Amino acid sequence: MSALKQNLSQATKDAMRARDKERVATLRMVNAEVKRLEVDERRELSDDDIFAILNKMVKQRQDAQAQYQDAGRDDLAAIEAYEISVIQSFLPEQMDETELVEFVANVIANAGASGMQDMGKVMGLLKSQGEGRVDMGRASALVKAQLSG
Questions:
Q1: Has this prediction a pTM greater than 0.85?
Q2: Dihedral through CA 87, CA 94, CA 47, CA 108, nearest 10?
Q3: C-alpha of 46 from chain center
């Protein structure tokens, strides 16, 4: 069993003991998604697989939160924000803006990328070398700016 999966399981048990219903519900949702993928793919998921699941879940909640705020449903947006904070607590800390700019510039230089035709290669390298710390949306905008400029 991966270390991250054990951490999720232990956090769920701790939240149950503390009678923190909202945290338990969020963690059960994460555990269910991990279990669903394990059953669908018939294999044990690695930490990297689980990081990908967590990142996807955060992105979904951020989109939902934005839609709720646009619709004036601050109560539902607050629930999404809480779920985002719980899920993000299991993810590595994201790079800040200056660190991300330097990282993207280094990857572009090391890859020898010269134009937009190299964007796919650069994005693949960013994802593999970023260790879950790269916000791929922000990174994509930086790569486009540097390769087209």
A1: no
A2: 150
A3: 15
pLDDT score at 93: 86
Q: Residue 70 class from Cβ within 10 Å (0-12 exposed, 13-18 middle, 19+ buried)? A: exposed
Side chain identity at residue 131, one-letter code: E
- Domain locations along the chain: 3-88, 97-148
Q: What rounded mean pLDDT belongs to the chain? A: 91
CA distance 93 to 72: 30
Which CATH code fits 97-148? 1.10.10.410
- Whole-angstrom CA distances from 128 to 5, 24, 68, 111, 116 are 20, 31, 33, 13, 19
DSSP assignment letter at 42: T
DSSP 19: T
| 147: CB partners within 8 A, 6+ apart | 108, 113, 114, 115, 116, 118, 119, 122
Are residues 143 and 122 in contact, defined by beta-carbon separation less than 8 angstroms? yes
Q: Which two tokens stand for residue 97?
A: 């803006």
Residue 149 has pLDDT above 70, yes or no: no
Q: Which CATH architecture has domain 3-88?
A: Orthogonal Bundle (1.10)
